[in-house]
Amino acid sequence: MKKFSILVLTIVLATTGYQSVAQPCAGEVIKFRETFGTGTVRAPLPPGRTNYLYNSSSTLNDGDYTLLNTSQGKPEWHSSSDHTGDADGRMMVTNASFTTGEFYRDTVYGLSSVSSYSVYFYAMNVNTVGTCAPAPILPRLQLIVESYNSDGTFTQISSMISDSLPQTNAPAWIMITGQIYLPVDVTAVRYRIINNATGGCGNDLA
User: Fold this and answer.
1) What is the mean pLDDT of residues 20-26?
2) Cis peptide before 134, with omega less than 30 degrees from 0?
């Protein structure tokens, strides 16, 4: 089996589409893994990671997020631990904004140019079945990977779009995965996560 390096974006966001390439396999070397740490109380992201509003104490409104060790940001949402299996592992829990758009980004350094990488991440629709019936808004996510160029600009090199994340009877983490190839002289990438569904009743995720 060919050996690939992988960027593991274990960021409470995963999806059902685009799963035909670069499944994880034996012999892979993890070059980067994104998690949200551990803790039993709410916490914010570092500056510059999101344009959502940090909610430190109440149920999440549209456009809010928090880092929490349970997915239950509202009473009608699933109560689940995070995907990592870490004790009191935190996840990013969001009530999507009314408008579509980016809600998370980060930059990864120290990669090898002219190399292939697998990329995957996990997400959950936190709404229980029947929430917002009969027509709940379902999350639909896009992962955009961009090369960080020597002049400080970015160039898109990959875009992965999920199917809509369904409501489930039990908490369900779903993976979206793809493959990127870094051009000559590119050793850093920025990834951005876009929510392509509008806010309203539904579209809530970890």
Assistant:
1) 46
2) yes
